[in-house]
Amino acid sequence: MGSHFVYDFADGNKDQKDLLGGKGANLAEMTNIGLPVPPGFIISTDACRAWMESGREPAGLADEVTEHLTRLERTMGKQLGQADNPLLVAVRSGAKFSMPGMMETVLNVGLNDESVQGLADSADDDRFAWDSYRRLLSMFGATVLGVESSVFGEALDDHKHRLGVKDDTDLTADDLRDLVATYKGLIREHTGRDFPQEPREQLDLSIAAVFDSWNTDRARLYRRQERIPDDLGTAVNVVSMVFGNRGPGSGTGVAFTRNPATGEQGAYGDYLENAQGEDVVAGIRNTLSLAELERIDKTSFDSLLAIMEKLENHYRDMCDIEFTIEGGKLWMLQTRVGKRTPQAAFRIARHMVAEGLISPAEALQRVTGQQLAQLMFPRFDECADKDLLATGMGASPGAAVGKIVFDSATAVEWAGRGEDVILVRKETNPDDLHGMVVARGILTSRGGKTSHAAVVARGMGRTCVCGAESLNVDVRARKLSVRDGRTLCEGDVISIDGTTGEVFLGEVPVSDALVVRHFEGELDDDADDLVGAAAEMMTCADDARRLRIRANADTPQDAARARRFGAEGIGLCRTEHMFLGDRRQLVEDLIVADDEAGQRAALDALLPLQRQDFTEILEAMDGFPVTIRLIDPPLHEFLPDLTELSVHVARQEDAGAVDERDRVLLQHVRRLHEVNPMLGLRGVRLGILIPGLFEMQTRAILEAAADRKDAGGDPRPEIMIPLVASVRELEVVRRRIEAVAAEVAEERGEVPHKIGTMIELPRAALLADRIAKSADFFSFGTNDLTQMTWGFSRDDVESSFFSTYLDNGIFDVSPFESLDTLGVGSLVRLGTEKGRATRADLHIGVCGEHGGDPSSIHFFDELGLDYVSCSPFRVPVARLEAGRAAI
Ligand code: ADP
Ligand code: MG
Ligand code: MG
């Protein structure tokens, strides 16, 4: 209509959420598809933004409002707040993204001491008119005039109490008239002014108040949490009122076109007779089900169902709605695509495909990897008897049962002998890492969702409850005391629920999630509706995706599981853990050996053990590529702690008898000690400095492959060199590896293999064109690449300043959780382009944690990488997201 700021419902549609807000856009859409929406108009978010920028009402807005109000009055055949048969309006907020309960709505605008009588006469119902007026006074008083809303609530309760009535509906017209007088007095008392009687002034003040509600503290806080930008602004909807509070034949309700909790087909909702606005959700009286509405008012119920069907067909998705029935006539007041639980998302997507409403590709867009991950967490049996000890914060989901241990060393020791343990700490720090790795779950009595324990546990997919403040953790005494006086000791069994934050005494039975049992091959597609839905979405995703999915797996068990979960190879097989345990002694021997013969002996002892490791993994992944990373961490990680050993030797000196091996070992530990091991002697640097080490590993890999071939298998090993910064490092190591390969070929015949490198240092990404000359493949190690690009070490900083950075909006999300596409992502892009400039067919993957993160996967797909690799449990999530990325 040539207007700037104001739009009639007839002029908008559902795709204009930016301009009209979600509520306005959908009111417009419903109007235009012929649904019964009370007439009205929308003041756009442009007006809100203009207002926020200038701090004043934008010029021309008042005139436009007048123009649209006049038209609305003509349509309705009555004028705002006129003395007889008045037009009343609702003034409703509505931003692009729904912000439930954050902003304001004022109903019944236009009522005053005169028009309340006019409304009573026109409806022939005094009670209804005074009920509407008292509602206006409380909403206007709170929203526009800033009186605490509890002031009105308490006055209402006082009245009811004095009159001895229970429900609002028991108040008579006279009671409500008294209440109006009380409310007016309260407004005067709290604001020093009278409730404005002039209808247009009421309207203008309400509009301004709704715009202002965009910037309340709670709205800002909510937006920060939900990552909604602060500069979007809200729209304001001015809608003619319809009345659910006009006696028993009227009412108001909310409904979903399908069950949003389970996904079951069929409408689902609540209805409240003789009620208005938020009464339904406020829980002031017991609501009725839609089935009960059908009994009371079949005609309205039937129209409601017909409308819901029309909405689903139109939006092609589950919708939620707000409606009101006024004297047997149904009105639609709001709709939007409804929020749902993960299981509902999967079921609804499947059902809608079966109903022919959406295509399989669309169904895939209706579910997320995040939702699938939630469906995969184990659960405690709902029916089991439980003894609740405390409730903390559910920081990393899952259900874990185990024996209490209070420190990492004990965790490692007990887990090593096959016990399930829960690591219980006041709070964790990087020293607890090895304990966290082996524990079933982690419980802390301090810290929030961004504490070290929470962040690290989520990263590892380990169940974690943090901040269970009613627990007292006494690490020294090895006791855990509960507020009710009970005390638990090391070794006592507890169960923790990382979703609800609950901590239970003893063992609560756990069941694997149904979808996991399906991925494990224990359940058929048709065992359950949800399983069927997940299976169907996985098939869609596998058909659609371009990216291949591999797993990070260091053991044959993990490799086998990854394969069952759909992995198409191993993208990262770490070899360092293979040097722990009994083999630590051999590594020590290698390091302390003072001649070549000694080194040779140590390496010779390690060789068959390594070969066995690789044979089993290659067997589990037969026919698929297995990328094995040669040893990466600094060697001192395999040696005793410097301080402990120093003390040990000093004691021996005091006693006058020092063990020779301890003395030599101490020299080497001192020699290898690094102030900053992350930037020290590790990765390819080790391979160059310690003669024979990479060669031994190469031989073990190739001999294992030869054994597999002899056994009729199809081994596809890929040897990967970590931490390369210069092509010359790679050349040196590659020559040595090739020499070993030639020897093995001589002895055992040709063994197929590739030699490639990780790209995990900025220099490697910058010079990827040179590095590609000596590499058959690249794998971006995005964990190290993130550390090296940002210049901080994950183990040190996550617990120190990340939560502050998140709070201050410096990070939206930890760069270790989701790839920093701007910075680290640029290096990945550059490395890919440069690598492929040298070798067009260079095979490129990603093996950091980011390989299992949904938004990072979409980024890697866009860059045209060949695969991502993630932990076995993330493999289905990655498959799903790779499919979603491709459509
Ligand atoms: P929210 O965004 O918090 O849901 P709404 O603007 O939808 O706020 O308003 C809250 C409630 O007020 C609605 O659910 C509805 O019951 C009632 N309401 C809104 N507009 C009208 C109207 N024009 N006539 C009658 N009731 C209305
Ligand atoms: Mg609403
Ligand atoms: Mg690395």
UniProtKB/TrEMBL annotation:
Its EC number is 2.7.9.1. Transmembrane segments: none annotated. Keywords: ATP-binding, Kinase, Magnesium, Metal-binding, Nucleotide-binding, Pyruvate, Transferase. It is an enzyme of class 2 (transferase). Residues 61-286, 295-350 form the Pyruvate phosphate dikinase AMP/ATP-binding domain. It comes from the Bacteria. InterPro entries: ATP_grasp_subdomain_1, PEP-util_enz_mobile_dom, PEP_util_AS, PEP_util_C, Phosphohistidine_dom_sf, PPDK_AMP/ATP-bd, Pyruvate_phosphate_dikinase, Pyrv/PenolPyrv_kinase-like_dom. PROSITE patterns: PEP_ENZYMES_PHOS_SITE (PS00370). One of its GO terms (molecular function) is pyruvate, phosphate dikinase activity. Residues 534-883 form the PEP-utilising enzyme C-terminal domain. It catalyses: pyruvate + phosphate + ATP = phosphoenolpyruvate + AMP + diphosphate + H(+). Belongs to the PEP-utilizing enzyme family. This is Pyruvate, phosphate dikinase. The lineage of its organism: Bacteria, Bacillati, Actinomycetota, Actinomycetes, Propionibacteriales.
